[in-house]
Amino acid sequence: MKKLVFGLVLYFAAVSVWAQNSLSGRVVDTQSGEPLIGASVWTENLGKGAVTDETGKFIISKLPDGEVELRVSYLGFETFRRLVTLPFSGDLEIRLQGKDFLTEEFIVSSTRASGITPTTFTNVDKSEIAKRNLGQDIPILLNFTPSVVSFSDAGAGVGYTGLRIRGSDQTRINVTVNGIPMNDAESHGVFWVNMPDFASSVENVQIQRGVGTSTNGAAAFGASLNFQTDTRQDEAYAQVDNGFGSFNTFRHMLKAGTGLLNNRFTVDARLSKITSDGYVDRAFSDLSSWFVSGGYYGENSVIKLIAFSGKEQTYQSWNGLPESLLKTDRTANFYTYDNETDNYQQDHYQLIYTGKVASNWKTNLALHYTYGRGYYEQFRKNDRLSRYGLPNVVIGNEVISRTDIIRRRWLDNDFYGFVGSVNYYSTDGKLDIILGGGANRYDGDHFGEIIWSRVAGTTNIRDRYYDNNAIKDDRNVYAKATYEIKPGLNLFGDLQVRGINYSFQGINNDRRVLDGQEDFAFFNPKFGFSYEKGGQTWYASYAVANREPTRRDFTDNPITEVPRAEKLNNIEAGVRAKAGRLSYNANFYFMDYTDQLILTGQINDVGAYIRENVASSYRAGIELDGTFQLSKAWTFGGNIAFSQNKIREFTEYIDDYSVTDFRQESITYTDTDIAFSPNVVGSAIIEFKPTKNLSLNWLSKYVGQQFLDNTANEGRALDAFFTNDLRISYAAQPRFFKGLEINLLINNIFNEMYEPNGYTFSYFVPGNTGRELVTENFYYPQAGTNFLLGLSLKF
């Protein structure tokens, strides 16, 4: 140790004498003369570098005398190389020549909003995602974007996580990756646990709130998330990330790329591993993933082959925590069987072509295939044999109708199809037209196995007690046009036709026969305008979305009472602006639902709770967000949303066990709050940069009271909460590394005890006065103060 310390002292002493020179300059676009922000400036022989600031300037300090091999690179421009002899007086003027490659942004442009599109959206780029990416899932990384409430079953942001936007849950949020739909065709949900560390391969994401623009897959019935994966990097690179944190959370990530080979080809790859014990007892997560991308870049075309996969095993914490344990044992887990686990793997393959096919014409085509398979295992104590289609077991004079059983419920599915678009843009820039659409098929098997039974009888291992199949075809075509009728004033139109054919047959997990087919045809028009003047863009739009019921709505409801499709009429109006150091957005929205599907307490013929259509409901609100750079050291940002979320009338059904013959009592409500829809959601971020390399961030999040059901009953609610996080980031460019970053994230620094998610049910039982109403609330508590620490090395 003494030798090590002495050696380090000598090393730093030598460096302080040896490194005396600075090299500074400015990087601009040769053609326009505009500064290039974020260009990479690197000394090849010394392993030191810098990134240009908002004026295109850079400075590299502590360089020795002699020759420096300088390399400057920027996406879409030719790499600049030059030998510079130090000491060097004055500033370098470096001009980069643009390349004629087709941009990859067109891959996602057909389903995205632009700066003049009259809808409400937020763009999050790679650098913003990376600041928080220490192993937690995407819903947690997006927690501070407008109107978002995120949550985690295991309480620490790893494993099963979810988010709501404007109160709309994941089944109502459309998700695409490179324009290809990710939502499960039957449940409409996206299970982020199947995409661990996917954020490490994301270039950017656009969050559209409300109906937004036409997209592929399940309808955007509250919001949409549009991801673009990593784009081309011209220089070879490698990156190693390692991190650890509370609850034995570890993250390891290795990423590398070839850069541009022969001026045409690239290959990029990533491997990730994330493990965590979770905040909740036994709620561990064991997650692994990989990502591979190969690209060809011509002057008029780009071809990309992308494959990525996620594999997860998590111990179940789905049951939540009873209200009685909230103050005594917040980490309690209902499950105790040692293999009460969820196991699933999902592989994605995408072949994408985008190209300039003629003057003023571009096209984008993609083929895709997803293979998913897995199961969850459950121990069922003293379960009825009849639930599994098994006869009673007779042993001597004893008739056994119940026994302990271990079961597995499987999914094995294929999802494949194509999406595409053609774009025409006029030479004068006034007209832009996109014609697009897609056709996709889902083929899914659902089956359950008995893998152990205490009293077996005639049961064999892996006996299937249910087995059914579903096929769903989803087709859509759309046409979008933007036309500038005079300088600054743009009209927007978007027409989509979507058709769904859904068929299912076999035996359901409640042993009922499933044989049905449903067809839907939807017309989704959207219209609006935007007006640009003085750095401001004013916009207003009206959009319609229709959405088919989910699988459970069909399978749980009696087939003679199939629920109706939902319809949403959405008005958005607002202004977005950027002036100097201030940027802001302000908007109003009104989302009017017809036949929205909600839980009412109604049960079907085998006792399962079903969703029913309510005739009329709405969400209305105001959203404000912005950032202000007070100085070079201080930046303030934040957002807040105020809303009313109401069901005009619905009927609740409550189980009544106080009578001899079971029945349900009905209660009608008017003008009640929609479940899980807080009236206030806000966040704030304060950044302080005392030096160029050090950043301190204070992040606050407030979520108002949420109701667990649609009765607006104060006894069935989630309390409002206010959390605060501290993030400390240090970035440097030491010798032999392109970059070194250390990130420390301290979550919930004031140890707030809060629950952003839960569920409830009520029933009548016999009581002293005839009967008594019992309400049982269950919650998903989130971790108190905890930390994540990450080290990233870039080569």
TrEMBL record:
<keyword id="KW-0408">Iron</keyword>
<keyword id="KW-0998">Cell outer membrane</keyword>
<dbReference type="Pfam" id="PF13715">
    <property type="entry name" value="CarbopepD_reg_2"/>
</dbReference>
<keyword id="KW-0410">Iron transport</keyword>
<keyword id="KW-1134">Transmembrane beta strand</keyword>
<keyword id="KW-0472">Membrane</keyword>
<feature type="signal peptide">
    <location>
        <begin position="1"/>
        <end position="19"/>
    </location>
</feature>
<dbReference type="Pfam" id="PF07715">
    <property type="entry name" value="Plug"/>
</dbReference>
<dbReference type="InterPro" id="IPR036942">
    <property type="entry name" value="Beta-barrel_TonB_sf"/>
</dbReference>
<keyword id="KW-0732">Signal</keyword>
<dbReference type="InterPro" id="IPR041700">
    <property type="entry name" value="OMP_b-brl_3"/>
</dbReference>
<dbReference type="InterPro" id="IPR037066">
    <property type="entry name" value="Plug_dom_sf"/>
</dbReference>
<keyword id="KW-0812">Transmembrane</keyword>
<dbReference type="InterPro" id="IPR039426">
    <property type="entry name" value="TonB-dep_rcpt-like"/>
</dbReference>
<dbReference type="InterPro" id="IPR012910">
    <property type="entry name" value="Plug_dom"/>
</dbReference>
<dbReference type="GO" id="GO:0015344">
    <property type="term" value="F:siderophore uptake transmembrane transporter activity"/>
</dbReference>
<dbReference type="InterPro" id="IPR008969">
    <property type="entry name" value="CarboxyPept-like_regulatory"/>
</dbReference>
<comment type="similarity">
    <text>Belongs to the TonB-dependent receptor family.</text>
</comment>
<keyword id="KW-0813">Transport</keyword>
<protein>
    <submittedName>
        <fullName>Iron complex outermembrane recepter protein</fullName>
    </submittedName>
</protein>
<feature type="domain" description="Outer membrane protein beta-barrel">
    <location>
        <begin position="566"/>
        <end position="755"/>
    </location>
</feature>
<dbReference type="GO" id="GO:0009279">
    <property type="term" value="C:cell outer membrane"/>
</dbReference>
<feature type="domain" description="TonB-dependent receptor plug">
    <location>
        <begin position="117"/>
        <end position="223"/>
    </location>
</feature>
<keyword id="KW-0406">Ion transport</keyword>
<dbReference type="Pfam" id="PF14905">
    <property type="entry name" value="OMP_b-brl_3"/>
</dbReference>
